[in-house]
Structures are given as C-alpha cells and as structure tokens.
Amino acid sequence: MKWNPKFLIVSIGNPLPKYESLHSAGHFALNGLAKALPHPPFRETTIGGQQYLISQGPKYTLVQSPTLMNVSGGFVSRVWKQMLKQHDAESLSLVIVHDELERDLGVVKLVPWERSPRGHNGMKSIKNSVSQKSYPVSPLARIAVGIGRPRERDPDSVSRYVLAQISGAQQRVLEEEAPFEIIKRLSELEDEWRTAVED
C-alpha cells in the first residue's frame, strides 16, 4: 500500500485578534502558511463545544488553538484524537508551531518532541496531555518560530517583551517570511519519516 503521510499542524499562542503579540507568533506564522501552501481560507468549526479555526488541505490540516497559551494541552489532545479517528496513526503526524525566545525573529527550527520545553508553558501543557509513548507510530514534532528576546533576562522584562503589541514589521516577518521556512522544516520532517518507514 502506498504511504500517504498526513500532518496535523497546530499553532499555539494567545488567541487572535485579541492578543496580537509576539507570544502568538505561531498563529501569525500559521496564517501565512495557509497562504504560502496555498490552502483554503481558515473557517470556524467546533470541538467539545469549543470554536477554533481550521484550514484543510490534502496533506496538511492547519489548526489554530483557541485557548490561552499556558492551557493549550487539553485542546491539542482533543483535536489530535479527532484526527486519529479519521486517519491511520501510522500515516499521521502532529506538529506544534510555537514561539521561541532563543532565536532571532523569523528563524524557524524543527525541534524534537522530547526536547525540554525550557520554560515554555504552552509546550509543558501539551506534553502533559500528549505523550509520544502513547502514539509510538505517529511522529510528534515541534516547529519553533524565533521572536528574539529583550536584553534584560529577568522574568518581568521577558513577559513584557512577549506580551507587548506586535509591530507591523514584526508581523510581516512572521506572516510573509517564516511560513516558507516552515514548509522547508515540514519537508525535512517528512523525509526523516519516510526513511524510518522504508527501513
């Protein structure tokens, strides 16, 4: 049987348009990804009484988490389990797109699922709800989108930086440049997956 990989790509952050900050970089990048692929426009749908945005294509299903960043886990777990009802686990991958303080604005990196969240509360929440051990045949991965960081490293300065209103220039980088890098990282992930399947 021909291998036909599918990807559930979920961005996490604080909900747009209410919270237009760097902390929602994943959402901005996912908006741009839908255009770069190109994909149908996002539409509203519901799971467990919770509304969220989805853009469905033949290979990629793009979903914006509607929750606050720090409590992303429950929603991600629900939408992942819903996808598993529609597709064979061996052909389905979960990818989380999130902001990353340690990288410059717009720099995109494929991150192993098992790597430490490094204080990222959104990923902590998700990893408490979705375990690789529970889905051994499904590749779980993270794509980190750089947002830079302030010179001061104290928690209050970092919090102000990530939650401040995003500038137009920053938003353009996340929506118009980062998505093409995300496509490259998804291709890398698929190549690694294909190698594992063929071996």
UniProtKB/TrEMBL annotation:
This is peptidyl-tRNA hydrolase. The keyword Ubl conjugation does not apply. It comes from Sarocladium strictum. Pfam families: Pept_tRNA_hydro. The lineage of its organism: Eukaryota, Fungi, Dikarya, Ascomycota, Pezizomycotina. The keyword tRNA-binding applies. Keywords: Hydrolase, RNA-binding, tRNA-binding. It comes from the Eukaryota. Belongs to the PTH family.
